[in-house]
Amino acid sequence: MPEKKKEAQQHEILRDAAGTLFLPAKVVAQIAEEVARRIPVRQRKPKKKSTKIDNPVFLDTSAIIDGRIFDVINIHVMTGTFVVLESVLGELKRIADSQDAVKRERGKKGLTLLDRLRKIRGVKVMVMQDKNGDNEPIEVDEKLIRHAKAYKGRIVTCDYNLEKKASISGVFAVNMNTLATYLKIRAVPGEALHIKVLHKGKDATQGVGYLDDGTMLVVENAADEIGRFLDVIVSRVIQTTAGRILFAKKI
């Protein structure tokens, strides 16, 4: 009888006053410990901190080879951290190793200008490793756009198509050719200029000279004035796809 009574008391403690079945705290602790051993614990990987770049400016291969961007940087018109992707460096090296003498020289010039820029005090230059989201090959232009967008930067290029593609993607691109056009001398009809005639024009009677910004100036009846400085007056201005051409007459 005592043993049966003890067993009955053990069964009774499994139910509370309302008759709801429950387990003793010791048993619950043992079950929880067993479950914890069997379920793998997932450890959270620490998030990688994204590197912040101060006002990043991504240089395209065409702009580096063109070289005018380095003059703009030297006079501090454009500031920030100038970023060169490894893929852009790879393109420059391939051009510098080209069998074509002109391409080879342009590639070497670009690499030389980059090296000089890196040594200028107060100018920040960094080479950035390409970060691809997948294993698919990506064009250099697309890499430039992706990186500029990720780091909220700008692109400097001489490539019209890259400029437009970047604009569509929401990335601001500076085209050095467009910038040079904006900076050209704004001569208007009736304006007097002092110009040196360098060679003949398409017409046998024309002489051709150039302004300091490279704008062509065609002077009527100046074919016999080659090598001389003339005072001329602008008669008309023609806009072409290659730029503006000024026509003038001798004063």
Which labels suit this protein?
5-stranded parallel sheet, 11 strands, OB fold (Dihydrolipoamide Acetyltransferase, E2P), 9 helices, Rossmann fold, 2 domains, 6-stranded mixed sheet, alpha/beta, 22% strand, 251 residues
Structure in words:
There is one protein chain. By secondary structure, the protein is an alpha/beta fold. The model is unreliable at 6-13 (pLDDT under 50). Helix 5 packs across helix 6 (101-119). A hairpin with a 6-residue loop joins strand 7 and strand 8 (207-210). It has a 6-stranded mixed β-sheet, with no helix packed on it. Strands 3-2-1-4-5 form a 5-stranded parallel β-sheet. The protein has 2 domains: 56-182, Rossmann fold, CATH 3.40.50; 192-250, Beta Barrel (OB fold (Dihydrolipoamide Acetyltransferase, E2P)), CATH 2.40.50.110. The radius of gyration is 37 Å and the shape is elongated. The protein is 38% helix and 22% strand. It contains 9 helices and 11 strands. The chain has helices spanning 2-12, 25-38, 61-66, 68-74, 86-96, 101-119, 140-150, 160-168, 176-182; strands at residues 56-59, 81-85, 124-128, 154-157, 173-175, 192-196, 199-200, 207-210, 216-219, 229-240, 243-250.
